Amino acid sequence: MAKKNTKANIILVLALVVMFGARLLPGAGGLSADAVAVLGVFFGSLIMWIGISIDWPSMITLLALGLLPVFGFGPTFVGAFGNTTVAFLIFTFMLVYPLSKTNFVRRCTISFITNKIARKGPWHFICVLFAAVTFMGLFISPSVLFVAFMPFLEDIFQVLEVKKGGKTGNLMMMGTAFCISLSSGMTAIGHVWPTMAIGYYTAATGKDVNQFQYMAMGIPAGILLIILLILVFRFIYRPDDVNDICPEKAMSLRGTVPAADKKEKIILSVMLLTVLLWVAPSLVKGVLPDLYATVNGWSTAMPPLLGCVLLFVFQVDGERIMNFKEVTSKGVLWGSILMTAAATQLGSCLTNEEIGISSWLTSVLEPLTGNLPVIGLILFFMTWAVVETNFSSNIVTTTVVSAVALSVLTALPEGSVNVAVVVCMVGFAAGICNMTPAGQSTVNTVAIGSGWTDTKSMFVWGGVFAVMAILVLSFVAYPIGTLVM
């Protein structure tokens, strides 16, 4: 194995030298410098495909082509995958998968629930628990996180001696489900519906919304919703057994998870680099405009592609950190990818001016929306999105509501409503989906099936949460969004 890896590493270095070294050569023999650079990528790719494998080295080919100014990442991803959204989801799913195989979820949760604030009292503990799952949900798929977190949540219940059938256990299970689903709308990192909403807006208008802009709206709105949820639980739901919780008992969980090893540290470092490439350019836009223009032009799919390449290249104990066969079979949600590809094209067709559906929808909805003020339109679309996502697929909700919103709102006088914010809010609203099992099949069915909560509780309190979300999105998220988009 060691000899095989050494040979592969030598071949990889040779291929990279050919690929990127060719960019330094001038044009010759009738070939331009760009032509020489492309030939360098071609021959470097051949070296990798013949000497290493045809799977993950192909991602280096995409990275090398995207870094060529004559092409760029946008056209490269469109040529390879049809659109940037599909490429973004594939690479992000692959990048996040290795993290789910580590002890990060348990270690992160323990660090949250055993700190001084969490140990001050039962409600402090509940607040910190919800904060922990929300934080992890910002960059981990809700289904993956909830399934990974459930066994540990059971351990927490056992350590704290929380009783099944009690209101506190019900509250903690519902709150965990609500917060994990909510977090999938707070960022577009590895989350399908916000990514789709952004993709629809870009396809319809030619304008883009970056990760920083989305999070600047989504995270404050999500934090406010969590605060409101906790207030509802404390002063309206009012669990009679909450004072039976002794947060100090959670201290026994310390030491049950080994310290992060070299592999986990590399994975976390690569994840951090990816997030920085998404967010940092927007923070230096006014100071370093050229850097912002360059990095922002790489598209949102480039950072996770780079992250995947690094995890395929890096090795620990003679093995590459990421295994292509495993990550593509277990880590990538191909059903969501295929539906996203189809739904993106469908949304583009629905909003195509030559087809005429947009103008027809506008005329049909004119009696309903024509006399509504801007806030009325926003309330209309947010209510529609939140209600539908609780009874159908999140992806279907995002597709349908985004398409109609784009058709109706782009027909209004320019400047009367911020279309980008409303469409992004539809992606956020798709994560408010805990009333019925159909809303978020994995999270809701596992929560109900656990015995800690039931269908009635999820419907009633999920409904209360949904109403709060509609109001927060309409009256808080929209104003914030208009400041950054």
Automatic annotation (TrEMBL):
Biological-process GO terms, alphabetical: carboxylic acid transmembrane transport
The UniProt entry's GO CC annotations, sorted and at most eight, read: plasma membrane
Q: Name one GO molecular function term.
A: organic anion transmembrane transporter activity
What is the membrane topology here? Multi-pass membrane protein
Query: Where are its TM segments located?
Result: 77-97, 123-150, 171-193, 213-233, 266-284, 296-316, 368-387, 393-412, 419-438, 458-480
Which cell locations does it reside in? Membrane
Key words of the record: Membrane, Transmembrane, Transmembrane helix
Secretion signal span: none
Protein family: Belongs to the SLC13A/DASS transporter (TC 2.A.47) family. NADC subfamily.
What name has this protein been given in UniProt?
Answer: Sodium-dependent dicarboxylate transporter SdcS
Q: Can you name the source organism?
A: Dorea phocaeensis
